[in-house]
Design brief:
With about 250 residues, the protein is α/β, with parallel strands linked by helices. The chain has two domains: about 5-135, Response regulator (Rossmann fold), CATH 3.40.50; about 145-245, OB fold (Dihydrolipoamide Acetyltransferase, E2P), CATH 2.40.50. Helices cover about 30% and strands about 30% of the residues. It has helices at about 10-25, 35-45, 65-70, 85-90, 105-115, 125-135, 185-190; strands spanning about 5, 30-35, 50-55, 75-80, 95-100, 145-150, 150-155, 160-165, 170-175, 180, 195-200, 205, 210-215, 220-225, 230-235.
């Protein structure tokens, strides 16, 4: 039995990857899941897996730092939202990489490559770690200045449930308030962390941490129920693939 550990700090992403792996590789046993790099190393010592799926950006200890300590103990697939990291990982000798959100077709290719590497010594990732450390991820928006009446409020993006276009303004919706900014959705797409905010409509970006459940509307389109909010957000067809097998 081939065994693996999934290290990913976003519960939704972690569950999605596990489900898709089960479909693409039924014989693979995911023996542990970790929400940060430190827990991933603890699971490594406990389980001694054949494979590790490492999110590059995790709290406590990043996937890069975990890879530095592996010393060829198992094969690694890096999971990332940034093309810069992915290309560097592949060119420098990692078994493979996956871009978020993980697509089934791309995962199938990764599975075949992994099967081809099983039984062979895992590469020492020293060079790739050095390369990835030098690869700077884009600086992402952390705060927005929003208008609430006559006042300006500084809001952390972590508090924002979703952004939605509203004529010439964009609504900034938190768990218990709403505000307006002049920045359009197309600019926010480029400035926000794609691991935190998913575009589900040409006019809507949703914080994945605020997604409670995903259902279907009367047309069969995915529909998101938010945590601490009564309204539901419909996912338009161009973005429905994000939730296809969830």
């Amino acid at each position: 039995m081939t065994t693996a550990i999934i290290a990913e700090d976003e519960p939704l992403m972690r569950a999605q990857l596990k489900r898709k792996l089960a479909e693409a590789w039924p014989e693979l046993e995911v023996v542990a899941e970790a929400e940060n790099g430190a827990l991933a190393l603890e699971a490594l010592e406990r389980e001694d897996p054949d494979l590790m799926f490492l999110d590059i950006q995790m709290p406590v200890m990043t996937g890069i730092e975990v890879a530095r300590r592996l010393a060829g103990r198992c094969h690694v697939v890096f999971v990332t939202a940034y093309d810069e990291y992915a290309v560097a990982a592949f060119e420098q000798g990692a078994v493979d990489y996956l871009l978020k959100p993980v697509e089934a077709d791309r995962l199938a290719i990764t599975v075949e490559r992994l099967k081809g590497h099983l039984g062979k010594p895992a590469p020492d990732l020293g060079q790739i770690v050095d390369q990835l450390t030098q690869t700077a991820a884009p600086t992402k928006l952390r705060w927005v200045k929003a208008s609430i009446g006559a006042n300006i409020r500084l809001i952390s993006v972590q508090e924002i449930a979703y952004f939605q276009s509203d004529e010439k303004y964009t609504r900034v919706v938190t768990a218990d308030s709403e505000a307006l900014i002049r920045k359009p959705i197309k600019e926010l797409v480029d400035e926000l962390d794609p691991e935190l905010f998913w575009q589900i409509h040409r006019s809507t970006l949703v914080n994945v941490n605020f997604i409670a459940t995903i259902g279907r509307d009367f047309r069969g389109q995915p529909e998101i129920q938010l945590r601490n909010r009564d309204e539901k957000l419909t996912v338009s067809r161009p973005f429905a693939h994000l939730f296809k097998q969830m």
